[in-house]
Amino acid sequence: MMKVLYWGFIISLITGITGHSSEALACTNVLVTKNASADGSVMVSYAADSHVLYGELYFWPAQDHPSGAMLDIYEWDTGKYLGQIKQVPHTYQVVGNMNEYQVTIAETTFGGRSELRDTTGILDYGSLMYVTLQRAKSAREAIKIMTSLVEEYGYYSSGESFSIADPNEAWILEMIGKGPNNKGAVWVARKVPEGYISAHANQARITTFPLNDEENCLYSHDVISFAREQGYFNGKNKDFSFADAYAPLDYGAVRFCEARVWSVFRHVNESEADQYEDFIMGRSTERMPLFFKPTKKVSARDIMNIMRDHFEGTPLDMTKDAGAGPFKVPYRWRPLTWKVDSVEYLNERAIATQQTGFSFVAQMRNWLPNPIGGILWFGVDDANSTVYVPMYAGINSAPYEYAEGNGNMLEFSWDAAFWVFNWVSNMAYSRYSYMIEDIRKVQTELEDKFEKMQPAIDQTASTLYKQDPALAREFLTEYSHSQASITVNKWQKLGQFLMVKYLDGNIHPEKDGVFLKNEYGNPHDPIFPGYDKEYYRKVVEDAGDKLKMKPFPPAQD
C-alpha cells in the first residue's frame, strides 16, 4: 500500500552538520554537460563518504498507489522517523540514484549557518533525493518537486548542494533551511552551461547569479530578502552571493572542500585551475568560478579516474609528506585536524577516501531509449580501488552482491560486494605502493572489458527494445547481474592473491599471477623489499646512534 523510505544505517558523519568541523566532511560531485563529454552524454559522479554508511545499490520498482495513501519519511542519516507526506498515484522505478527517465540526483552537505536548521521539518536531504527520483521526469521537474516539498512539509537538514541532471541538462541546486520558526528553505539553482563542467564538495559554491534568466537560473522568491532580514546581507540585489550569505568560507572549507573541486578542475584544465592555487592554500580570497571549460572532452572513464584522485602531482600530493609512510599511502586516518604543542595541523581531504560507502558515475544518453540510455557505473568502498560496474536504468532488480539488505555494516559477509572490496582495500593500505599496482591490473582489466562490451550491449538491447521493451530490460538485467557476480568473484581471488604475495611483509615472486617455485617444487625464496632510502634516512634522524651497527667487543680506552 505504501512504500516506506527506511534506512537502517547511520551516516552520523553528516548528521547535524553546522559549519565545517573536521569530522563533518563528506561527498564529492562532478557534473558534465553534453558538449563537454566525449560521447555527448550528460554525466554526474558521486561519492557517498561516511564512516558508517553501508555501500549497497538501492532499488525501487515503479508502483501505483491508492488515493489518499501516505508515505512515511525516515531520516537517511539515522533512521529517525520524521513524519508523513502525501503519496502520488504513480512512482517511477529507481536504480541507485537514477530513475527510469535517466534523472539522476546526488548531493554534498555544506552545513552553513547552524541557526537555519529546522528540526521540525519532515524532509531531510536523503529522503528529498529519493522521493523526488520516484516522481520526476526531468531535472527541471525535479527542482520544482524538491523545492515544493520542502515548502509544504519543511526541510529537516542543514545546507545542501544537489547535482540534478537528465539526458539533456545538468543543474546545481543549493538549499538551506530558514530555522525552526520559518517553514521551508531558501535556494538557488544554476544550469551548467553547455560545454562546461562543474563540481562541488561540501561547500556552497553558488555566489552571485542572474536575477532574470529563468532558462538558466531559478531561485526562491525570498532568497535575498530573508538574508537581509537575518543580517547576512545589506548590499544591492545584483551583488547578492548565496554562498557568502548562507555558508561563509573559512580555512577548513577551502582546504578540505574547495581543494577537491580545484583538483577536479585541474584534471580537465590544468593551466586555468592552477591560477587558483593561492586560493586553495589560503593565500588569496579569489574564488574559483562555478563552471570550468575543459581543454578536451571528457569520458566516463575520465570521470572515474577523477574520483580516484589524491591530489597527485599537486602541492597537496598525499603520497609525498611524512604521513604517507614508507609505502606512499595517500590516506590519513581521522581526525582530520590534530594538535602538537597547542598548534593545530591538518590532514588533506582528497576526493578518494577510505570511508566511502558507495560511489558512481551516472551516464545519461538522450539518443537511446531510457532503459538503455541510462547507465549507473556503480562501485562500493574506496573509489580509488573500486570497480565501476554497469547498472542500466532498465534493470528489473539490483544484483544480489550489491543489493540492499545483503549484509550490513557490523557483519562481514563474503557474499556482499561492500565487504569483499573493503577486505582488499584494507590490506592494500598497509603496503600501498606495491599492492595498488596489482589492484590496478584487475581493476583496469574489468573496466576495459565493460567499455569494450558497451556498444554491443547497447545495440543488442536496442534491437530487443524495438521488438519488446520487456525483453530488453530482461537482457540488461541479466548482463548487469552477471558482471556484478564476475566482478565480486574476481575481487575475492585478488584478495587471496595479495594475501599470499605480500605475506608477512615479504614479496613472493610471481609471473602473470602464478607464484614461482624453486627447482624442488617448493616456494621460491621471497623478496625482502625493506623500505626506500628516504624512509631509512628519516629513521636514522629520529633514532640517532641507537640503531647503528657497532664493532664488538667495544674498543677499550
Summarize, please.
With 557 residues, the chain is of the alpha+beta class. Helix content is 30%, strand content 19%. It contains 13 helices and 23 strands.
Mean pLDDT across every amino acid position: 94
Radius of gyration (Å)? 25 Å
Beta-strand proportion: 15-25%
The count of helical stretches stands at 13
The main sheet comes to: 7 strands, antiparallel
Strand order of the largest sheet: 16-14-1-2-19-20-21
- Category by helix and strand content: alpha+beta
The proportion of residues forming helix, as a percent range, comes to 25-40%
Q: End-to-end distance, in Å?
A: 94 Å
Give a verbal description of the structure.
The protein is of the alpha+beta class and 557 residues long. It has a domain at 28-251 and 292-300. The chain is built from 13 helices and 23 strands. The chain has a 7-stranded antiparallel sheet. A 5-stranded antiparallel sheet has the order 10-11-12-13-15, with helices on one face. A 3-stranded antiparallel sheet has the order 3-8-9, with no helix packed on it. Helix 1 (125-133) crosses helix 2, helix 10 packs parallel to helix 12 and helix 11 (432-467) runs antiparallel to helix 12 (469-501). It is globular. Residues 1-25 have low confidence and may be disordered.
